[in-house]
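Dear Dr. V.,

Thank you for agreeing to look over these. As mentioned in my earlier message, I'm a first-year student in the group and I'm still getting used to reading structure tokens, so any feedback on how I've presented them would be very welcome. I ran two proteins. I've put each sequence directly above its structure. The first is here:
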Amino acid sequence: MPLLCLASPKGGVGKTSLASGLAHALHRTGRPVFAIDCDPQNALRLHLGLPITDPEGYLARLHLRPDWRACLRRTPAGPDLLPYGETDMRGALATSGLIEREPELLAGPVRAMLADPSAIVVVDTPPGASAALQILAPQAALVLAVLLADAASTALLPEIETGRFLGRGTLGTLVGPKLRVVLNQVDRHSRLSVSAAEGVAAHLGARLAGAISREEAVAEALACQRPVGAHAPYSTAARDIEDLAATVLREMPVAAPAPVAPAVTSSLFPWSRP
């Protein structure tokens, strides 16, 4: 099943930036790509170019049983997005509880999106253990755990390898074979960052799916509400994400996309391709 979940044992690791970059890079291969924001921060929409003033979404309104298709947004970056929606802490907790009680409210839309065997669904999950991750991870083709390339990453490796960051129970055992790690924000000018990245890479071996360079272009891309691959396609970070997307496609059973007619290059994203 071509379902890709992005997770992290803690926040602040650039998981949402990576989710948007991967969704954009996978979309550029010609495949239908759906992105789902399961993080109450509701930030994935900003990375993909939706207006900051648009508060609508799916999970934030889950108690109203909305039609997920009516909540789907076509983004300027290309992928279709199911935003989380605007909420507060109380609303986020209520949504999490509702998903636990009625998992089909989340699993159903994902299953419908995957009815097209060439489609890829990219899910940005909240940091740490979450109801969304527990529901979707067992069905995912890959789970990418995002870590920073710093000294703290070494301390988090046991959480990753044992699956403890996924929560209690058997989820870690179920997900283990399809769990991969991505090192984010590798600072090539920092000896400590490079050493930490090299140490983690040596320890993980084939379980390391990729490493993404730390660059100002990534922050600039968010400020412009674009994935870095659209904002700065020739940057090292953009190329790193393209390499990661290629790895994802090799490891996930994705059908070849149907032929499409050439699209006119967008003036908003002059470097984008269908």
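The second protein is here, in the same arrangement:
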Amino acid sequence: MKYLNTLQGRTTSLAALLAVSASALAIAPAAHARDGLEIEANVALVSDYRFRGVSLSDKDPAIQGGFDISFASGFYVGTWASSIEPVGASELELDLYAGFAFEAGGAEFDVGALLYTYPGESDAHYWEFYGSAGFTTGALESTFGLAYAPEQDNIGGDDNLYVFYEAAYPLGETGLSLTGSVGYETGAFGDPDGDGNDKWDWSLGLAWTALGVDWSLAYIDTSENFREGNATAVLSISKAF
């Protein structure tokens, strides 16, 4: 995925995946490019759908997947879905997004807009704008990013801001990478335990590729004292086509 699906985000997060079914792999279309157009699909089954440190699957496994279409100009559009703990009448999160990715000054930038929808529950969808900058220092890969949701009725008439840093560092010739992240959230979603303090989340893990798929194992925790934000270990595997 092109948009903010990093360690703080969703399926391609190194700390968000568990297993992918053979049937899903069999039917997923392969990525291909033609005349500057590239189409990619991704599938996964996660042990716990953690979004910005908080479980959205009630700490249970979730099935996930999506598609991206990107153009030589840097523009892209995509969609991504996950099973979730019910939001009203909906048990599915369906995201629609569009953005622009480019390189400048030795860094990779990504800006765009994202619509979170919950089919079957019309009063839960909301918009968010995002941006990130990634760069490499020696072997260390770093990304700084933010996501901002303007004031909207479906998030209580409030706005929301999330900022994060994430990093990945290869461990020599082992094929393993050490991954880590820290994020801060304030606004509509910034105090899920209701104690009056804004939320912090962090993760530390390992990522590697084996048997044709991408694996990770990560420790994830938040500053919030409630069940869905308590510390956990997430084992993962994902596949992109």
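From my reading of the second output: The chain has one helix and 15 strands. Residues 2 and 41 are 11 Å apart (CA to CA). Does that match how you would interpret it?

Kind regards,
E.
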